[in-house]
Amino acid sequence: MRLKDKVAIITGAARGIGEATAIRFAQEGAKVVVSNTGLDSLNEVVEKIKEMGGEVLAYDVNVTNREQIQSMVDDVVAKWGQVDILVNNAGITADSQLLKMEEADFDKVIDVNLKGVYNCGQIVAKIMAEKDGGVILNASSVVGLYGNFGQTNYAATKWGVIGITKTWAKELGRKGIRVNAVAPGFTMTPMVAKMPDKVLDMMKGKSPLGKLATPEDIANAYLFLASDEAAFITGEVLAVDGGVVL
C-alpha cells in the first residue's frame, strides 16, 4: 500500500474528485480526513470508506474560515498525531462574462479557490514543518493554464494556485515538504453529468482521446504525487486533461 499509515486531509471531499481521492487514498492505506461545508454532505463518502475497512474522520469546514481549519487540524493531530498529506481540493464556480460579472461573484470565488488554499496550506505546513516532511497538493485546472470563456474569476484562481504551488515548493523544500498541483481537464463529476448532451459532446471533442476524465483519473494523479514514487517531484503542475487544447 502506497500510503500506509499516512494521514491525509482532503478538502471539498463530499463528491466528485474530492470523494474519489478520499476513497483512493483509503484504498492505499491512508487514514483519511474529509472536510466540506456541512457534515451531512460527507455521510456517503464516510460510509464508503468505513465499508472498505478504512479509517476516516469528517469535519464541517469552510476553507475561508481559519478558525474552523485550525480546529480540524488540531483535532486530527490530537487523534492521529500527524498530518502527512493535504489535498486542497475545495473550490467553487460563479461563471459570467467579464462585462456582466458581479463583484460579489468575483470575490467569493477568489476567497474559496485561492485564499482557501492559502489558509489550509499555511496552517497544515506549520504542522508538517515540525515533523520535517509532508506533501501538499493543490487543485489547479486547465482553465488556469489556458483561460476559458466566462470564467475570469475561476481562471484567475487556478492560475494563482500555480504561482502558490511553485512558491511553496521553493520555500518548504528545505523542510522536507513537497508541493505540487494537478490541473484537471473536463471531468465527469456529478455537476458536469447534468449538463446537456450537446455540451458534453463539445467538451469531449476538445480532447484527442474523445472523452472526459473520470474523478478516479484525477484521484490517481493525486495518489502518485502523494506517494513516495514522486519523492523527487516538487513545484510541478501535472495536467490530467486527455491532451485538451483550449
What would you say this structure looks like, in words?
Strands 3-2-1-4-5-6-7 form a seven-stranded parallel sheet, sandwiched between helices. By secondary structure, it is of the alpha/beta class. 47% of the residues lie in helices and 15% in strands. The model has no long low-confidence stretch (mean pLDDT 96). The radius of gyration is 17 Å and the shape is globular. It contains nine helices and seven strands; from the N terminus they run βαβαβαβαβααβαααβ. One of its GO terms (molecular function) is 3-oxoacyl-[acyl-carrier-protein] reductase (NADPH) activity. Homotetramer. InterPro entries: 3oxo_ACP_reduc, KR_dom, NAD(P)-bd_dom_sf, Sc_DH/Rdtase_CS, SDR, SDR_fam. Keywords: Fatty acid biosynthesis, Fatty acid metabolism, Lipid biosynthesis, Lipid metabolism, NADP, Oxidoreductase, Steroid metabolism.
Helices, by number, come to: 9
Number of spatially distinct domains: 1
> Beta-sheet strand percentage?
15-25%
Question: Going across the major beta sheet, what is the strand order?
Answer: 3-2-1-4-5-6-7
CATH architecture descriptor text: 3-Layer(aba) Sandwich
Q: What name does the CATH topology carry?
A: Rossmann fold
Unreliable segments (pLDDT under 50, ≥5 consecutive)?
Answer: none
Q: What does the average pLDDT come to? A: 96
Give the CATH superfamily: NAD(P)-binding Rossmann-like Domain
Query: Looking at the structure, what is the overall shape?
Result: globular
Structural class: alpha/beta
The N- and C-terminal alpha carbons lie at a distance of 37 Å
Main beta sheet, described?
A: 7 strands, parallel
Number of strands: 7
Give the helices and strands as they follow along the chain. EHEHEHEHEHHEHHHE
Q: What would CATH call the class?
A: Alpha Beta
